[in-house]
């Protein structure tokens, strides 16, 4: 199931726990004194089969180019990780779930912080700035950049909902945009993991918030009270 609804309700501080070694690295090394390693090997075998199958599905679609158009050349991430991020089936395998939940949690927290940075610098009608900053905007829920409506529009306009890689047997059509928002959070977390804090902040401000059809422009279209 999509996790975006859960993440958007969480306090920002709880989204920024360190991304350490995922727990699956220890859980996936069972004792050879038992038969647990057989079931683990079977699980990983099923995962590898699904990975190869979904990689072929991606090659028949525009998924890779759609994600690349958002990341550009400065914020690239490993192709295997990109496929896992864009595939709800792969990222929900037991030995992957914690890793991608952590990336999504981190990504949503970073996004909300950078949106707050943008928001207190932007003006709305009827709001008086304090030292040039619009702190009242932080409590104006109607104009927040991370409402579900704004995020849905973003993933739709950037083709991320179309970039979701799914097996024909997967029933995700009703929640495809929500899965795409989850993927967006994970992409942000992955950029942070591979490029560091400064690059992740640049990525958020340049491509997610202020970029072409960024969250700020989408929010402007959906709300008519911007100055």
The outline comes out as: globular
By CATH, the topology is Ribonuclease iii, N-terminal Endonuclease Domain, Chain A
CATH class: Mainly Alpha
Number of helices: 11
- Write down the overall mean pLDDT: 77
Q: What is the percentage of strand-forming residues?
A: under 5%
In angstroms, what is the radius of gyration?
Answer: 19 Å
Description:
There is one protein chain. This protein is mostly helical and 227 residues long. It has one domain: Ribonuclease iii, N-terminal Endonuclease Domain, Chain A (Orthogonal Bundle). Helix content is 58%, strand content 0%. Helix 7 (94-119) crosses helix 10 (197-209) and helix 8 packs across helix 9 (176-195).
Summed up, what is this model?
The protein has helices at about 5-10, 25, 35-60, 65-70, 80-85, 90, 95-120, 150-155, 175-195, 195-210, 215-220. It has about 230 residues and is an all-alpha fold.
Question: How are the elements arranged and paired?
Answer:
Elements: H1 4-9, H2 24-27, H3 36-59, H4 63-71, H5 79-86, H6 88-91, H7 94-119, H8 148-157, H9 176-195, H10 197-209, H11 215-222
Helix pairs in contact: 5-9, 7-9, 7-10, 8-9, 8-11, 9-10
Organism: Trichomonascus ciferrii
Protein name: RNase III domain-containing protein
List its salient traits:
single chain, 227 residues, mainly alpha, Ribonuclease iii, N-terminal Endonuclease Domain, Chain A, 11 helices, globular, RNase III domain-containing protein
